[in-house]
Design brief:
Length: 448
């Protein structure tokens, strides 16, 4: 069985192999801290051995629930934000047909909501769901996140009005804390089917819990293969695997060496639009884990070759604070060959008989060489193809590397104190009960 791989020789113009190897003791310390639960944020390490602890029976329960939704719904809305949505969105988009319209032939459309507060977005979603039998997978660990709770109230009301309460209840599944929070209380009272987000798994590490698994199964994808891939990567990146043989440790070591040598921004690059949301998920994973205490590589992303025509100039010649990590897919799932054209007015006959992917790969290689020449160190992750198994490997690879990398940086990679600041201000401005003092203070500040 092939596995995803990592190469970093194109980063070695900016840092040396010796610099990377010098991190071996820090890597071992970080791996031991993860394994023994002795590092910062050690109450959020439930993701570490999550893949290998998932049972067949548990996956079967999720698959049965997903099947029930697929059979009884024309559309399924997945409501959640941040860690409660990006993982599922990333996997589904990576596996789905690029043109959503074809999806509906295989089962209900999967729609995402609860990740913004745009009135137009919600109005248009509600319009789309008019007269449809729709289901809701409502995901919130805290059960109180405004974007998700607000969306759920609107959709629940619409579902009950359209289908009647009893039918709506059959199509609503809540994924939340085992005991705490408004969503748990509501679910118990209304009789929703529920799944639990484990206490010790933070949102951005939760894609392999029901948070990601139920929407992915509801979209018709093989969650057993996804978990199998993650298990393989859990084994391949464990604390018993040294830097030489451990791609998660290598990725952490290279990006931290580059950060220490002055690189400030890591750009995750893909050459397949389907991977756009893998980058969005990755940005949250690394941004929330490492961006704290005035430190951390800023995680950015581009979709190539599209963005070579917008961001290519900066990457090639702008400030030299960038590093690139490319996700390359070795073999596409579909095949398109260039036809011959007698007149050759577009001058493309030199591509005749070649696959489109060959052109894409040459664009990738040409870009890598140009960017390295321009002073942008480059790492490359190769996925043999886009399927559930390799996406499972990729997810765990990034999670493990994130834990190691965060400890190398010296922060707690498992908290996110900074995301509370906007919420406090928003609640004060909305005059939420309990925020009276903050409302007074913020009004005075605005009046100044
Ligand atoms: O990683 C995180 O903690 C956040 O992105 C949360 O997942 C996000 O804010 C959603 O929180 P909740 O699941 O409590 O609604």
């Amino acid at each position: 069985m092939e596995h995803i791989s990592l190469s970093y020789e194109k980063a070695l113009g900016s840092i040396s192999q010796a610099q990377i190897e010098a991190l071996q003791p820090e890597i071992e310390k970080a791996q031991a801290a993860l394994e023994n639960g002795t590092g910062k944020g050690n109450d959020f390490l439930g993701w570490l051995h999550l893949p290998s602890s998932i049972t067949e029976a548990f996956l079967d329960e999720i698959i049965t629930t997903a099947k029930g939704l697929r059979e009884t719904c024309d559309a399924i809305v997945v409501a959640g934000i941040g860690g409660s949505y990006l993982g599922a969105k990333a996997v589904i988009e990576a596996l789905n047909d690029s043109f959503g319209a074809l999806k509906t032939k295989k089962g209900p459309s999967i729609l995402f909501a609860g990740n913004n507060i745009s009135e137009d977005y919600l109005a248009e979603l509600m319009d789309l769901l008019k007269d449809k039998r729709f289901g809701i997978i409502n995901i919130s660990k805290s059960g109180t996140t405004t974007e998700t709770a607000l969306t759920f109230r609107l959709l629940k009301t619409q579902a009950e009005q359209q289908m009647g309460k009893a039918e709506a209840v059959k199509r609503i599944v809540a994924i939340t804390d085992a005991a705490k929070g408004a969503l748990r209380k509501l679910s118990t009272q209304e009789g929703y089917k529920t799944f639990v987000i484990p206490d010790n798994v933070g949102g951005r590490f939760s894609v392999l819990t029901p948070v990601g698994l139920l929407p992915i199964a509801a979209a018709g994808y093989d969650i057993k293969a996804l978990v199998k891939g993650a298990v393989a990567m859990e084994e391949a990146t464990g604390a018993d695997k040294g830097l030489k043989e451990n791609i998660a440790a290598q990725y952490a070591a290279v990006r931290q060496s580059l950060y220490r040598s002055g690189k400030k921004i890591e750009i995750l690059v893909n050459y397949h639009p389907k991977l756009h949301y893998v980058s969005e998920w990755w940005k949250q994973l690394y941004g929330e884990s490492e961006g704290k205490e005035g430190k951390g590589l800023f995680p950015a992303s581009v979709d190539f070759t599209t963005d070579l025509h917008s961001m290519g100039q900066y990457i090639q010649e702008g400030e030299r604070i960038l590093l690139e990590t490319v996700i390359s897919v070795a073999t596409p799932n579909k095949k398109v060959e260039f036809p011959h054209d007698e007149e050759n007015l577009d001058g493309l006959n030199f591509l005749q008989g070649k696959r489109v992917d060959e052109v894409n790969k040459m664009a990738e290689l040409g870009t890598q060489l140009a960017h390295v020449d321009g002073g942008v160190p480059n790492m490359r992750i190769v996925m043999p193809c886009l399927n559930e198994y390799y996406i499972g490997e990729l997810i765990y690879f990034f999670e493990r590397a994130c834990g190691i990398s965060g400890y190398l940086e010296g922060v707690n990679p498992f908290d996110q104190p900074g995301v509370e600041a906007y919420k406090k201000n928003m609640f004060a401005l909305l005059e939420k009960p309990g925020y009276e003092a903050e409302t007074k203070a913020i009004k005075a500040r605005i009046a100044q």
